[in-house]
Every structure is written in structure tokens, then in C-alpha cells.
Amino acid sequence: MLVILSQKVDSESSYADELFDSYHYPARYKNQLHKGDIFIYYQGNRYDKSQRYYFGVGSVGEIQTTDGENYYAKLLDCQQFERKVPIYLPDGGYIEQLGFETVRKSLNPPWQSSIRPLSQEAYDYILKAAGIQLSSEPVHQDSINVLKDKLKLAVRDFYVEGNSSAIHRIESIASAIGRATSTSGKENEHIQSSRYSPTVSQVEKLSRLLDYCKTMRMSYSYKPILILALLHYGDQDGCISIENAAVYFREYYSNRKAQGLAIEKKQCIYLRDNVTDAQIIANLLSNPVKVLIESGFFFYNEDSHVFSISPDIWSTIDGSDKAAITRICRQKLKDYYKD
């Protein structure tokens, strides 16, 4: 699929990136980047609008981790743009707003996310603005056969080896074969680089999120409560401030106490009547926020103090999906307090 990789080039970075060679990112993004993805490099700057631009393109190779916390993606076929592409459209708005409905629900991109999905329309616009022509080659039967062989290997990885990430390769290769076979019998027709269709990968990610909610381990009741806070107190972009999440937690435990129900199974700050908002926020950051972002399905922006769900997952969630996640979380809480 197509993604944006945020990369600092005009300031110090806390990550061990090698420009146009490797990309270092934390575990919270582990489900957002896959081998074979096509990326656009993005430089952001909170204080200088002139330093917000796209400056390169490439593909993602092997991804490795040694500790489960830090991930390193090898970058392949990289090309630096001869001219930087500002993030703004000439008539106002942002380039990443083009075709946004194919990758998310909100018009504006989640600028705080270091890795985020990119629409095909925005991708094509950026390359054109950078003066790069999408390469194309005549379609030959040999190239189709190579694609078929790759598809067989990807299917085997998915069904036999149990490699769920292979679904992205299956999607991309199958699309390429479809276009190749539809043009192979026509003269002067060419196959272009594969175009991203978000349906399978995003549905797969939503399915993984549901599975995660069903199977997440619970030492305290915090994780499903924070997910419920996000669903019911969050905004239209799937975000909630940590302050509003603290309000939800206070109300949740107060309601349990008022109904004569156990507040928690263990000693915790919510047993105290005089617990402060600051203490609740500190508790949220040290426990459920930290664990949930490690799952790769959620993010926390330390600058804006906002907790959010992965934007490419949120873009696929409708009312029935929210109801399903709500049921799962409430059942998890019911089982937790029953034990």
C-alpha cells in the first residue's frame, strides 16, 4: 500500500534513521508498515510552514526487530526529489486531502502520525509535482508468469505458514496480474506500477483489532475502559484528549461505586475519593495508554496529549463496528469482575 513516512531533515531526531536507507520506528506503528509498501518521505515542522514538504519516494524492504520495541525497515529503490513538494494545494487545502475518503474518514490527515496511509490520487499528484513520471513497461507473458509465481508464494505464506501480513502482497500482486492480463493483448498498451486498493488491508486490520480486543490480557480493568472512552467520548477522527479520557474513567468508577459494585479487584487510585485529575492522567499514561500503543492499533501524541485509534482503521469503522467493539469491551469487563 501507499504510505507517508515522516522524516526529520532540518532538526535532530531521536530515532536511528538512515536517510534513504533505513527507517526506525516504535512498536506502536508495527501494523502500519509492511514489506512491499511504497512510501513518500514527508518533512514536517510545527513552527515553520515553509519547511513542510515531501522530498522523496521509495519502497519498503525487509523489516526487523530485535526487542519487539524498535523496528527497522530497509528502504529500497529510493529517489530524492529534485524539487521539494510543499504539502499545500495551490488553491488551498492539503495534497493529502486528495482522495482522502479511500484511506480515512476525516478530511485532514493525522499529521501527528509518523506513518500514515496515502491515497493513490495524492501519491500521483506528489510525483507529478516533483517532476517524476510513473515508469511503465510493455506487458509480456513472462512478466505475467513471474507475477503468478509470486502470487503462489504469497498465498502459501498466508495459508500454510500463517503469515497474516502476506495478505497485502496477495492484494497487490493480484491487482497487478489483473491489469497485466487485461492489456497484454493490446498493442501499445502498458502496465503501470500497481495502484493501492485499501479494502482488503484495512478490513484485515479491523479484524485484527477485534481479535486483539477479544484476547487482550487484563491485570486491571483499564484497557477496555480506555477503548470505550475513545469510542464514546472521542471526536469524529477517532481521537480523545487524555483529559477527557480521565473524565470518563472518573465517571465510570463513580457509577460502579454508586451501584454498590466493586470498583477494582486490586488496590488502585480509583478507590480513593480524593483522587485528582492529574493522578488519573498519570495512571492512564503509565498503564493502558502505554500498553495499547504497543499493540500497534492505537497512538498517543505527547505534544497534543491526544490518544487515538489508527486512522486507517478508523476510516473503515462504522456504527456496527463501534457497537461490536463496545460489546467486546463490555464483555471483557463483565468477565474480569466476575472472576
Architecture overview:
With 339 residues, the protein is α+β, with helices and mostly antiparallel strands. It folds into three domains: 2-133, ph1033 like domains (ph1033 like fold, Roll), CATH 3.10.590; 137-192; 204-338. Helix content is 40%, strand content 19%. The chain has ten helices and eleven strands. The chain has helices spanning 120-129, 141-159, 166-183, 199-215, 222-233, 242-258, 277-286, 288-294, 311-314, 319-338; strands at residues 2-6, 22-26, 38-43, 53-65, 70-86, 115-117, 136-138, 190-192, 239-241, 298-301, 306-309. The strands form three sheets. Strands 2-5-4-3-1-6 form a six-stranded mixed beta sheet, with helices on one face. A three-stranded antiparallel beta sheet has the order 9-11-10. Helix 5 (222-233) packs across helix 6. The radius of gyration is 22 Å and the shape is globular. The protein starts with a strand and ends with a helix. 32% of the residues are buried. Residues 135-140 and 183-200 have low confidence and may be disordered.
Give the tally of β-strands.
Answer: 11
Global Rg: 22 Å
Give me the number of helical elements: 10
Q: Averaging pLDDT over every residue, what do you get?
A: 83
Helices and strands, in order, run as: EEEEEEHEHHEHHEHHHEEHH
Query: What is the count of structural domains?
Result: 3
